[in-house]
Description:
The complex is a heterodimer. Chain A has helices at 73-81, 107-113, 125-128, 135-147, 151-164, 170-174, 183-195, 213-230, 241-244, 265-270, 275-282, 323-327, and strands at 31-42, 45-57, 62-66, 89-97, 100-101, 118-121, 201-205, 233-238, 250-255, 258-264, 332-334, 341-343. Chain A is an alpha/beta fold. Chain A has two domains: 28-248, 3-Layer(aba) Sandwich (Rossmann fold); 252-355, no CATH class. In chain A, helix 4 crosses helix 5 (151-164), helix 5 (151-164) crosses helix 7 (183-195) and helix 7 (183-195) runs parallel beside helix 8. By secondary structure, chain B is an all-alpha fold. Chain B folds into two domains: 2-73, no CATH class; 89-308, Orthogonal Bundle (MetI-like fold). Helices cover 78% and strands 0% of the residues of chain B. Chain B is globular, with a radius of gyration of 24 Å. Chain B starts with a helix and ends with a helix. Classes of the chains: A alpha/beta, B mainly alpha. Chain A binds chain B through residues 81, 83, 110-116, 119-120, 122, 124, 127-133, 141-142, 145-146, 177, 179, 193, and chain B through 210-212, 214-222, 225, 229-230, 233-234, 307-310. Bound molecules: adenosine-5'-triphosphate, iron/sulfur cluster (SF4) and magnesium ion (MG). The site of adenosine-5'-triphosphate has 13 residues of chain A, from strand 2 and helix 1.
Amino acid sequence: MRNTPVAADPVSLTDDAAADDSAPGDTGPLLQVDGLRTGFRSSEGTAWAVDDVSFQLEQGRTLGIVGESGSGKTMLARSIMGLLPRANIECSGQVLFRGLRLDQMQPSELRRIWGTEMSMVFQDPMTSLNPVVRVGRQITEVLRAHRRMTRSAADDAAVELMRSVRIPEPERRAREYPHQLSGGMRQRIGIAIALACGPRLLIADEPTTALDVTVQSQILDLLQQQQSERFMAMILVTHDLGVVAGRADDIAVMYAGQIVEQGPARSVFRTPRMPYTDALLRSIPRVDDPSHTRLAAIAGRPPALLDRPPGCRFAPRCPSAQDRCRQDAPPLVGGVDPGHRYRCWFPLGAEAEQAGPPGNAHDTVSGRVPMPSATT
Amino acid sequence: MLRAVTSRALHLLGVVFIVSFVTMIMVDLIPGDPASVVLGEGATSEQLDQLRQQWNLDDPLLLRYVESLADLVRGDLGTSVITNDSVLDTILERLPVTLEIAAIALVIALVVGVPLGIWTASRANTWVDRAGLLATSLMISPPAFLTGLLLAYVFAVRLHLLPVTGWVPISEGLSDNLRSALLPGVALSIYETGVVARVLRSAMISTLSEDYVFAAHARGLSRTYVLLRHALRPSLIPLFTVVGLILARLIGGTIIVEVLFALPGIGNLLITSIQSRDFTLLQGVVVFVALGYVLVNALVDVLYTVIDPRLRNRAAA
Ligand SMILES: Nc1ncnc2c1ncn2[C@@H]1O[C@H](COP(=O)(O)OP(=O)(O)OP(=O)(O)O)[C@@H](O)[C@H]1O
Ligand code: SF4
Ligand SMILES: [Mg+2]
């Protein structure tokens, strides 16, 4: 685990209040989110981008959050960190991180956690790195701010970090500006910055979406490898189930601000219950498919924030929607597999246990578990 | 790099050619004969002819232009037709006055305007920001002569803190010199301070919405650090553009304040040369000021590449 001098070492390197290793959170899950809601206030009411989301994440594990564009993944990630603008935002629910109520913390307290205990890798490394600051400095500034390192110690640590994220010639690269690096190299810098202070939780918000297809799996592999070496927990946000296949321990599928299906990755991939998850699985492009085309795009668009249908939010696009779906909102409930929960009145492959009408059999993709390399 | 320098130098020459040509035409268009103005009412026609010949006034305009250009390229701005002094020497003698009040104005504008711009941008849409906007709009509304008169009235006439008019050269004591330069410098600075604060504010507000600023906050860096280290520098490009304009305005445009406070600077020299129909002097001053504009602009272009590394390759190409 200690492959770099700045690798996560909870005892000697963390600072301040959060450093207490016997913090109450260490006995429970690393992160526990309960009933989290985040909305934008407007003249027509509050538009809930994140609507009653709950989940847990244990130390060292990876949660994949999957959903179409606009489903609220980024807002969820930001709400967890407390990285929301104050104006016109409404936020409620609990975020418990190592026993600390992040949702009740002041920005000044949160700043001590951001970048140290909990850090973020952004979607587009071109825009999330400052174009007029040398990349080396963008790594060292975090070390110097949080770890009070001297300039030369931080320089050395930055070079080590760059080496650990496999940037060739780190000493030379450190003196370059973001525009002088390729997209993949820039994202490696983004990852190095996020890892600098040895976080326990890494939130990667679509870390490969803006990258060239050829480097996407390299970056994902790097994240996965760093995650296991440092025994970090990771939230991997993506709109592509193929990205999290084989990389996440648990999956949460988001639709219109809600988690519509969640559970162990194996269970969700093998027996998706909610038709939306099933549709997402079908839209994974496969490496053995020479055309690399989407197998089946989901027809229609997700509902607008302020115009969500009263019943199941997926009903207007769902091939197996019934009257009940359009009237009552299905709760997030469990099925046979432990920990596997979904929001659906008529779950797939569950006719036997559910009181669904006959003839509602779906052509599920059961057994078609995509390989980890299917990340295109 | 060599190409960049060469193209700059060519640009400079082009500006000098055009400016001197235009000035010559304008001077030529001023009604009245320079020779008769210089010699006064009672001059005989022989005297006039002699003078006209001496200044080649009867030659075609183009020929006179080419001749003066040849002098210009040698760095010779000629001699004043009135006093016979070297034009260049006269300008250089007046230059420190203008430069000093321009420098005072610019320093005040930056020292007050930059923090004000940063502060209001970081508090955008709060009462701090709104108060700042009101203050800066008050700064940029009144013309310089009005602020100058007002300042002179309050600080010189009423409070007797500073001299009303006149200039004390540095050679006669730094503190007296500064006292004589302060009011005109401040009068000039007020408008420019408002401009600096407003330009920096809007540039910073747009930088603050960039992803990399958000990302810097998400790394737990302090507000002040993010503001000064990540947001300020990218916002300096529009500021430097404006500072270039301000400098140009101050070099050539201190006229009103110089006249108001009776300062022996370039602005006053320009006025005198026009009033006395001293066309060689006038031409010299105009060309000199134009050169100043071009040099300031070249400097600003270089500063862009210092601020933004992305511009470096382009500048060299
Ligand atoms: N400032 C804002 N004001 C109003 N609505 C917003 C604002 N920012 C985001 N939204 C809305 O919130 C919803 C969730 O946005 P979010 O960015 O979290 O989606 P996402 O799942 O991350 O999508 P993507 O895949 O495009 O990143 C979207 O419907 C979006 O339109
Ligand atoms: S509740 Fe009905 S509409 Fe919603 S996903 Fe299930 S079957 Fe489809
Ligand atoms: Mg997003």
